[in-house]
Specification:
The complex is a heterodimer of chains A (498) and B (494). Chain A is mainly α. Chain A has a domain at 286-498. Helix content of chain A is 72%, strand content 3%. A two-stranded antiparallel ribbon of chain A has the order 1-2. In chain A, β1 (57-65) and β2 form a beta hairpin. In chain A, α4 (105-124) runs antiparallel to α5, α7 packs across α11 (232-238) and α16 (333-365) packs antiparallel against α18. The longest helix of chain A is centred in the last third of the chain and has 33 residues, at 333-365. Chain B has 494 residues and is mainly α. Chain B has one domain. In chain B, strands 1-2 form a two-stranded antiparallel ribbon. Classes of the chains: A mainly alpha (498), B mainly alpha (494). The interface between A and B is medium-sized, with 33 and 33 residues.
């Protein structure tokens, strides 16, 4: 089933690419059809997913390249369940977000579909080889989408994005090849098993620290964290709307997911040893994201920095676990980690919605500068309502997804690393300030004359943004239901940190 | 010596020689007054028939003959050497098919005769473990290639490239011969297997051996396009007829790396002898990686671009050579095979879009290929992406295996410059750089608009089959590399 979910977008990409005539009329339909088929299969999978006591489910495991110890091994557990779901939801959203792309459709939509394959594959792979394969594959379409369809400074943005992420993954590849030589397996779960019995460091020997650093570097760039975030603002702002959505909602999660899948279970000792350093970096990222966002006039740039800040919260929860002192506040570990996992999901939904609506605003007005707007609520009340809900979720208002995940993170990390958590608090305040300012600037005040006749939400926009809003409210109202999926795997990971 | 065994062992070569004479005889005897295209097509067909029969015989030998060695390792037939020979014959067949529709000048049958001669030389090269025969076979390959490079008599550039290739090549052959003779002086035998024994029994390393290995490295470095002996590569690739360039880049490269691995075998056993050449090869690899990949960034001529990328790829493969282990050798062989297939395909595409229309392989020749011939554009994508090492094509697993073997050779190091880590790091970095120029070609082919009056793309059905087969091989061996890797490994271990 997982293989089908992964490969359907690939088939759709080929279909969109090879259609007769090649004028691209059907390309959009292929991409949408592929992503909806994957979504349907994912929903079926989610329906059958056993939240407690299921372990790794929907496993497919085949020998692939026995000479090099490589297996094809995919499966879903509490760590990647929500991410797979998120990817399946965001995929059709991003296709719908590119509904009015006119130029070179027979290139654009196949690339977009190919990106879905990369993401689905990377979220479900449990063997390093094809995990890395998909991880790399997810770079190529984004590079081209930015380069061909991006804004004015697209060449620079695409190049920067590409170089940084490739450098990171190069380090990671080296690290894992070494790890394989020492342990004889590329299997994530087998490696985690070795680590939990404490035999891994002895097997690896003096290179343990270097391998950890190499893997860390790859994820550091991908997430990104300070100071390797410098590719991010350009890439996010120059990319077309759909790609901004994919980058912020899914590709950044690939980095965080890497921390949960690779770092926490496989390198517990090294992670504990470096946790103060990582917490410092994380808090710096959170603060930088929040303060930089406050100074932006470009809405997309503002959302980019805000996203940097919110993804930082995930890592705050994760790194706080590493900083646990023995016997002290062990109870706080579970909420910190579970919150981080849910935060990936809720931030993905929220930021996708926000980038989408900003894209629609730009499509209507040709501008995305705060200073150009004012009083839009008078002409587009429904648009304003949706935007406000998403912003409130981002700020972290109760009964919306942002609160449901940020609260456990802060609750947990305060118990584990109080100093760092307190240091991150100003960011919460700043976030509220700049997001409320945004709402105020764009939607209230006197209406700017030239926007007097812009249309309110269209049907396509309702279909795209509506489900996101429903999910955000759902997560916000019943967080326990969504947290349950990760409880088992979190218990397993935390065994190494008690 | 038992001549009937010799005959059965050399039966594939015999068929190739027969087809060589048949091509010459038919062309000059019967077809003298026929138009050039007919002559070219018939000569190419005869050459192909000989090669294909040769391949069939080799497959028969692989199935029914036990591995054997004739005349004190002058000819060694194992599944690996036979497989390599079959591959070389296959590559040559593709080269003949690519040339069939455009004769460089009126001497069509000599053209195919020279290609067959160099194929024979390359075939002997992979099969022999005798120093003298290595040199003779290498010269057979080289001399045929010099003539082929300059074959386009009406073009000044072709003549210039041929002269350049010849002068550089002759000097490097001299280096190689000197090196081999010093080597002989140390080990007192021409047989590489005995040489291994002689060297492992040495108590101290004589300085003469160092000189010998250094000279051999210089000589072979030229043949495999290792920097800093790469200066001939861009000019020759650019100015030689494109199928010839394809043959230089694929067939002679495969043979060159086989020889390099073979000759370094005797000195790759003990760490003290390994130390003689490790530094030189590491330096060569690093320089090749840097010069090849950075040089390719600036090229706007497709053939020049592939030439610089060939230097870069030589750098990758030298990393595998450097490891000196069985795993390393297997990785190099796997990589060079994949590289040869992809490169042949890439040159084949260039041949179709540029040479066939009398163009000079500027990158703009391929512009709008997606609109002009979508199938060809897709094939181009497969070849270039495999060269770039994008998964799931075979180039990716080739690099993966290569770097893996390099790390495996020396998994624990004390200083950063030990082992091949820094080199693997550099190679990974450069493969990121290389993406840029490979993807640029694809961008032009898929996204740029064709010229106002684009030249038509004419492709014969034989060419479609060849290119399609190459692409299919790259895809399947990328998805399921295990049979090939397993085959290479098993036949290396014996």
């Amino acid at each position: 089933m997982i293989t089908a979910i992964t490969l359907i977008p690939l088939i759709a990409a080929l279909g969109a690419f090879l259609q007769p005539g090649r004028d691209g009329r059907l390309a959009r339909a292929w991409a949408l059809g592929g992503s909806l088929a994957s979504l349907a299969l994912t929903l079926k999978l989610a329906w059958n997913f056993i939240t407690v006591g299921g372990g790794v489910q929907f496993v497919e495991r085949h020998e692939w390249i026995p000479s090099l110890g490589i297996q094809y091994f995919v499966g879903v557990d509490g760590l990647n369940f929500l991410l797979l779901l998120l990817a399946a939801i965001i995929a059709p959203v991003s296709v719908l977000a590119s509904w009015d792309v006119q130029d070179k459709k027979s290139i654009y939509f196949p690339l977009l579909s190919l990106e879905f394959t990369g993401l689905f594959g990377a979220f479900t792979a449990l063997n390093f080889y094809h995990w890395f394969l998909y991880f790399e594959l997810s770079l190529v379409p984004v590079f081209f989408l930015i380069k061909f369809f991006g804004g004015e400074r697209r060449d620079e943005a695409a190049m920067k994005f590409f170089l940084f992420t490739v450098l990171g993954s190069v380090a990671m590849l080296l690290g894992f090849q070494l790890l394989y030589l020492k342990t004889g397996t590329f299997d994530f779960l087998a490696l985690a098993g070795l680590a939990s019995t404490g035999t891994l460091p002895a097997m690896v020997g003096p290179l343990y620290g270097w391998i950890f650093l190499a893997v860390l570097l790859g994820l550091w760039v991908k997430t990104p964290l300070v100071p390797f975030h410098i590719w991010q603002p350009e890439a996010y702002t120059q990319a077309p709307t759909a790609v901004s959505i994919l980058l912020s909602a899914l590709l950044s999660k690939l980095g965080v997911y890497g921390f949960l899948r690779l770092i926490l279970p496989i390198f517990p000792e090294a992670f504990k040893a470096h946790s103060v350093f990582l917490l410092t970096i994380t808090v710096a990222t959170i603060l930088l994201g929040a303060f930089a966002a406050m100074r932006q006039n470009d809405l997309k740039k503002l959302l980019t920095y805000s996203s940097l800040n919110h993804v930082g919260y995930c890592l705050l929860g994760i790194c706080a676990v590493g900083a646990t002192r023995t016997g002290l506040n062990v109870d706080a570990q579970t909420p910190a980690l579970q919150g981080a996992i849910l935060q990936m999901f809720s931030h993905g939904l929220t930021v996708a919605g926000l980038f989408y609506l900003v894209g629609r605003l730009e499509a209507r007005t040709g501008s995305r500068y705060l200073t150009d707007f004012g009083g839009l609520r008078a002409v587009t009340p429904r648009f304003a309502t949706l935007f406000t809900i998403l912003t409130f979720s981002s700020i972290g208002l109760p009964f919306l997804a942002g609160f449901a995940s940020e609260f456990p993170i802060f609750y947990g990390s305060y118990g584990l690393a109080p100093v760092f958590t307190l240091a991150a608090i100003p960011a919460l305040l700043t976030t509220a300030i700049f997001l409320l300012t945004l709402l105020q600037r764009v939607f209230t005040g006197p209406l700017v004359e030239k926007w007097k006749s812009i249309p309110d939400l269209s049907l396509v926009e309702w279909i795209t943004a509506g489900p996101l809003i429903v999910l955000i409210v759902w997560v916000g109202v019943t967080p326990g239901y969504w947290l349950r999926a990760s409880s088992e795997v979190v218990d397993y990971i935390l065994k190494n940190y008690r | 010596m038992n001549y009937s065994i010799l005959l059965t062992a050399l039966l594939p070569e015999l068929f190739v020689v027969l087809s060589l004479f048949a091509a010459l005889g038919v062309d000059y005897g019967l077809l003298r007054h026929h138009p050039l295209p007919t002559r070219s097509r018939i000569a190419a067909s005869i050459a192909c028939i000989g090669l294909v029969i040769g391949i069939a015989v080799i497959i028969g030998q692989m199935l029914w003959f036990a591995p054997r060695s004739l005349g004190q390792d002058q000819i060694v037939l194992t599944s690996l050497t036979l497989g390599a020979k079959a591959l070389l014959f296959g590559l040559a067949t593709v080269v003949c098919i690519l040339s069939a529709d455009q004769a460089p000048n009126t001497h069509v049958s000599e053209y195919y005769a020279l290609i067959l001669l160099s194929t024979l030389g390359a075939g002997f090269l992979v099969c022999t473990e005798n120093l003298l025969l290595i040199f003779v076979a290498l010269e057979l390959v080289s001399l045929s290639l010099y003539a082929l490079t300059a074959f386009n008599k009406s073009s000044r550039a072709s003549a210039e490239a041929g002269l350049k290739y010849f002068t550089f090549g002759a000097v490097s052959s001299a280096f190689l011969l000197f090196g081999l003779s010093y080597f002989y002086g140390v080990v007192q035998t021409l047989n590489l297997h005995d040489a291994t024994l002689a060297i492992t029994s040495l108590e101290a390393i004589p300085p003469l051996l160092r000189v010998a290995i250094l000279l051999i490295l210089v000589g072979l470095g030229f043949k495999i396009a290792m920097a800093p002996f790469h200066f001939w590569v861009p000019d020759v690739y650019q100015s030689a007829p494109t199928p010839v360039a394809a043959w230089i880049a694929s067939g002679s490269k495969v043979a060159g790396f086989f020889v390099l691995i073979k000759i370094l075998q005797p000195v790759a056993i003990t760490p003290s002898t390994k130390a003689i050449w490790m530094g030189g090869v590491a330096l060569g690899a690093a320089l090749s990686l840097l010069i090849g990949n950075l040089g390719a960034l600036r090229q706007s001529n497709l053939k020049r671009l592939l030439a610089y990328s060939a230097v870069g790829h030589a750098g990758y493969m030298l990393i595998g050579v450097l490891s000196g282990t069985v795993e390393g050798m297997a990785a190099v062989i796997f990589y060079v095979v994949i590289y040869a297939l992809a490169n042949l395909g890439a040159f084949g595409v260039i041949n179709l879009v540029s040479d066939r229309n009398g163009l000079t392989a500027d990158i703009q020749d391929i512009a709008g290929c997606w609109k002009r011939s979508p199938l060809l554009a897709l094939l181009t994508a497969v070849f270039f992406l495999s060269l770039a090492g994008i998964p799931p094509l075979a180039g990716f697993i080739g690099k993966f295996y290569l770097f893996f073997s390099a790390i495996e050779a020396q998994p624990t190091i004390a200083k950063w410059y030990e082992g091949a880590y820094w080199l693997v790091g550099l190679a990974l970095l450069m493969s990121a750089v290389s993406l840029y120029y490979y993807l640029r070609v694809l961008k032009v082919s898929f996204v740029s608009d064709p010229a106002a009056t684009p030249a038509p793309i004419r492709v014969t059905s034989a060419e479609w089959i060849c290119l399609g087969l190459l692409a299919l091989l790259l895809i399947t061996s990328g998805l399921f590399p295990d049979p090939i890797i397993h085959f290479i490994r098993c036949s290396l271990v014996g």
